[in-house]
Write a structure and sequence with these properties.
7 strands, EC 4.2.1.59, lyase, HotDog_dom_sf, lipid a biosynthesis, cytoplasm
């Protein structure tokens, strides 16, 4: 039986400002508002970064794994009624550890747990896995601000 996503990629884009080619969340699989979220990023050979990282040995750059975790965290933060229709900016990355490579064909699962929320700030614990194997973990701090409208 196929499990339906709680949010599709289009619904994610309705919430966060990221767009192609740097919107990396394909689906939200689980969410406990204000507490935790699990998202999916399907890593394909068509990703533009694989052309240069690295020819003949495609590996997802670590900074983009962190960005993908940050986008998943943004969805969790911005689903809160206090922060809806705002923008969550990544303010700090702490304790980042990379334990494995992410390659084309991998399904990256992004596990985010909210640690603290203050008036305009949040701290999350973030873990990325492939086949239940931890490939990256970090503590991410966010600052939430009003969304700037297009001119």
């Amino acid at each position: 039986m196929t499990k339906l996503a709680l949010m599709t990629a289009q619904e994610v884009m309705d919430l966060i400002p990221n767009r192609y080619p740097i919107c990396y969340i394909d689906a939200v699989d689980e969410m406990e508002p204000g507490k935790s979220i699990v998202c999916t990023k399907n890593v394909t050979i068509n990703e533009s970064f694989f052309r240069g990282h690295f020819p003949g040995n495609p590996v997802m750059p670590g900074v983009l794994i962190i960005e993908t975790l940050a986008q998943a965290a943004s969805v969790l933060i911005l689903k809160s009624p206090d922060f809806y229709k705002k923008t969550a900016y990544l303010g700090r990355v702490r304790k980042a550890k990379f334990r494995g490579m992410v390659r084309p064909g991998d399904v990256l699962k992004l596990h985010i747990d909210m640690e603290k929320v203050r008036s305009r700030m949040g701290i999350v614990k973030a873990v990325a896995t492939v086949d239940d194997r931890r490939v990256c973990s970090a503590e991410l701090t966010f600052i939430v601000a009003e969304r700037e409208e297009k001119l």
